[in-house]
Amino acid sequence: MRLVILGGGESGVGTAILGKKKGYEVFVSDFGKIKGNYKEILLLNGISWEEEKHTEELILNAAVVMKSPGIPDKSPIVKKLQERGIPVISEIEFAAPFTKAIIIGITGSNGKTTTTMLTHHLLKSAGLNVGLGGNIGKSFAWQIADNKYDSYVLELSSFQLDGIINFKPHIAIITNISPDHLDRYEYKYENYIDSKFRLTMNQTEDDYLIYDADDEAISNWFKTHTTKAKLIPFSLTKIFSEGAYIKNNKMEIKISQEEFTMDTDHIALEGKHNMKNAMAATSVAKLMQIRKATIRESLSNFQGVEHRLEKVLKIQNVQYINDSKATNVNATFFALDSMNTPTVWIVGGVDKGNDYNELMSLVREKVKAIICLGVDNKKIIDVFGNVVDMMIEVSTMNDAVQMAQRLTEKGDSVLLSPACASFDLFENYEDRGNQFKQAVKNL
User: Fold this and answer.
1) Short-list 254, 398, 313, CA closest to 246
2) Which range is the signal sequence, renumbered to this chain (predicted)?
3) C-alpha 37: how far from its chain's center?
4) Which residues contribute to the annotated binding site?
5) Which of 174, 253, 263 is nearest to 219 (CA)?
6) Do 283 and 253 form a contact (C-beta atoms < 8 A)?
7) Are residues 277 and 410 both part of a single domain?
8) In which domain, by residue range, is 348 found?
9) d(C-alpha 411, C-alpha 341), whole Å
10) Are residues 210 and 163 in the same domain?
11) What is the pTM of this model?
């Protein structure tokens, strides 16, 4: 069986290693350059590869093709494979049949990384033998090749879900849905929503779907679609006989006749959106029968996620906050909503079809100055130019941070929450966040 892998990054190399171990004839093809450390691993494992091209005669003879999530469906080589009826799947679809572990799959436009990390933290703290993968950390396929975990917590993007056929998590979470990546979905929001709900399409009556009952897109989907999975909703405003909710500053979770309560003041994560992430993760912990005392302790000591509302430093009584992971408007909405001091907001990057008007009321209320850090800032300037007293364009992170320092007074905050992708000026959102942190330390 010939397995061809498009993309020689983390998921591609992980799939190659698992494929080789399972007896496939493996070939890796990357249209860009393959990083040195990945090349070494491919060579060590005797896996053939090519870079900076896709050689059709070496690809179109595949029995199955694993496509890395970054490669769009409309790329010419993918179209040719589809025309020939060769299955093009994602890493999780390829890898899942090779493990008997319990799979917890988490998707959503925002909050999925925090929810994934928190869920993993809850299960690991309880002593479970649990892996963390998908969109973060080590490749899921690679872990299956190397390790014997009893369960996996996977963060799954819509691109990974587009490439599944039979993949089925035992527990699925949809944190929320807001317009994102619409450039990959013909600019149709409903296509993106359907993509997220692929997470539950193969679930049975023995499986669970945990979801945000306050989310409009999710509620609308349920009006015209169904899933066989048992439903566990969570909400900040509604109360359920089966599900998770907040009542009198307490998080309450009721699942199969069992109850769990905890004061929200004792939960380490701050902000309304994080209460939802905590409810989703705790629902998993309850389904996995983790002791209440362990859950309480884990929720109170969780450190949060790097580049997500990460407090960097306080300088001259000004708090600098790194929210580089906010790559869409909805994520930035949560960030601005959680600010309770006058804020200098650093925003901008590659716009994925953003509607900035959704932020208007928060900007009016909380933002004293805007620093645009992007190659093309026209849309941001058009929307907010008359709303804030000060609007400045810069092209480097150092300039952004130094300018922010000049515009702040004691008691203010500086928030990097770009609402955009980072690829115009940075390698990725981590690079952007790390440059911000370094620039703040250099002040």
Assistant:
1) 254
2) none
3) 25
4) 108-114
5) 174
6) yes
7) no
8) 310-441
9) 7
10) yes
11) 0.82
Q: Are residues 286 and 236 in the same domain?
A: yes
CA dist 232 and 209 (Å) reads 6
Cβ proximity of 8 and 31 under 8 Å: no
Residues with pLDDT less than 50, the chain: none
Kindly state whether residues 191 and 130 are assigned to the same domain.
yes
pLDDT tens-digit readout, 270-322: 888 899 999 999 999 999 999 999 999 999 999 878 898 899 999 999 999 99
> Domain end: 89, 112, 137, which one?
89
Residues placed in the known binding site for ATP: 108-114
- Terminal alpha carbon distance of the chain: 57
Residue 186 neighbours by CB distance under 10 Å: 10
